[in-house]
Amino acid sequence: MTNTPKPNEPIVKHIFTADPSAHVFEGKLYIYPSHDLDHDGPDNDNGDQYKMEDYHVLSMDDFNSPVVDHGEALHVKDVPWASKQMWAPDAAFKNDTYYLFFPARDHDGIFRIGVATSKRPEGPFKAEENYIPGSYSIDPAVFVDDDNRAYCYFGGLWGGQLEKWQTGTFVEDAEGPAESEPALGPIVAELSDDMLTFKSKKEISIVDENGNPLLAGDTERRFFEGPWVHKYNGYYYLSYSTGDTHTLVYAMSKNPEGPFEFKGKILTPVIGWTTHHSIVQFEDKWYLFYHDASLSGGVNHKRSVKFTELKYNEDGTIQTIEYKA
User: Fold this and answer.
1) In the annotation, is 284 catalytic?
2) Tens digit of each residue's pLDDT (9 = 90 or more) over 7-22
3) Taking every pair of C-alpha atoms in the chain, what is the biggest distance, in angstroms?
4) Would the pTM of this model clear 0.85, i.e. be above it?
5) Which of 36, 225, 261, 292 is flagged as catalytic?
6) CA-CA distance, 32 to 242, in Å (whole number)?
7) How far is the C-alpha of 229 from the C-alpha of 193, rounded, in Å?
8) Which CDD domains does the record associate with it (predicted)?
9) Is 54 a catalytic residue?
10) Contact 98, 73 (CB under 8 A)
């Protein structure tokens, strides 16, 4: 248990946490972050420094209550198909069951997406024997719509291997599209009723105000990693990280599978290489959960989860949040 969290400060300091997926379950806030190991290895663009092995679930009754660390919810040694790098997870509730969706490298070094289940939001979670058939890349985010249909959004460039799947099969030395070509979008897959397989799968198109696809060279706006979808006043909001330009941005649609029209920035660059986020409504306000590397003095693989209030304009657009260390 920790002190009561404050906006723009680490919600826990006893472990390094990142990639927070926040949800309201059973009237409480639950945060599903990744767990950065404290080591002194080098950083690289392939993400080898992110050696995460397990997940801890955090919760708080409200923003005036201490954060509770419920301990280890799932470890890579308990996932038969996985070898290493338990990166950014997400959780969902359906069928009276809590589902934890997570990426990890399989025994061939290819990122896949797995599922684990529990009857409690804090776990512990039991992993399925195999990853989701047809899954690849990283950063799963699961959205259960008002009609109870569930969608899994996923994908990440560079170390996330999304470029390697452009042909539908894994190509080790594949590169992304040219700067003048449409950028790669995240993948959306409708989940089966039991949440364990994909019914369908497609790439999301993110377009500008004229309906033209964002280009790969448009690094201030194009998708890089960390997709998240939430719904507000009848619109679906796809938010994500631009990666090497270090910004959280968003696009809007009337359809959960897109196309999504780019709208603008959510969060300006943080301390650390990039950030990864979630957006959740709790009681009568909306909140952005994100991470930075301020607690470690800027070490990219020693990050900390934070939160701040998120506000909308009357037309449904999101007000840009200026990062405060």
Assistant:
1) no
2) 999 999 999 999 999 9
3) 50
4) yes
5) 225
6) 22
7) 19
8) GH43_CoXyl43_like (cd18619)
9) no
10) no
